[in-house]
Design brief:
63% of the residues lie in helices and 7% in strands. The chain is mostly helical.
């Protein structure tokens, strides 16, 4: 690929390649990569001890709209991966929780993520991989501070 290619196009190509590889791994579990990512967020928040996980928490975390998250959670619930019940703190919200089928799944997702990253970056040195991760983290921090998705 050309160095003269616009940065946005490079990022888009990288995103599509990563998502395609993750979709293959997620498909083996009967999920899409997006569903798997949301499920991973629920699992991770549960392990960190977050009392209740509400849909709006997930919307902010995943940078998606309310209707999109509603559809994702309905799919995950119909497949038996999450359970949505009325919040004990505020009846206007639903508490989202993993089922036995998906509890701790974030560890599997981390493993898949690492496999895909290593596969896509097989020609990079460990130092280059670390530099890439550092730069991406800085860009994400800038995105959060700019409130682009909030």
């Amino acid at each position: 690929m050309s160095d003269s290619m616009p940065s946005g196009l490079k990022i888009a190509i990288l995103n599509r390649a990563f998502r395609k590889k993750l979709d293959e791994k997620a498909a083996a579990m009967g999920l899409t990569s997006v569903q798997l990512r949301v499920l991973g967020s629920v699992s991770r928040l549960e392990e960190k001890g977050k009392g209740e996980i509400h849909q709006n928490d997930l919307e902010k975390l995943e940078h998606v709209t309310h209707p999109a998250m509603t559809k994702l959670l309905q799919k995950l619930e119909s497949k038996g991966f999450v359970k949505c019940v009325a919040s004990s703190l505020d009846r206007r919200y639903k508490n989202v929780m993993c089922t036995e089928k998906s509890r701790g799944i974030h560890k599997v997702i981390l493993s898949h993520d690492k496999e895909v990253f290593d596969e896509l970056c097989k020609d990079l040195s460990e130092g280059q991989k670390e530099s890439f991760q550092t730069l991406v983290s800085l860009i994400l921090k800038d995105i959060d501070s700019d409130k682009i998705f909030n």
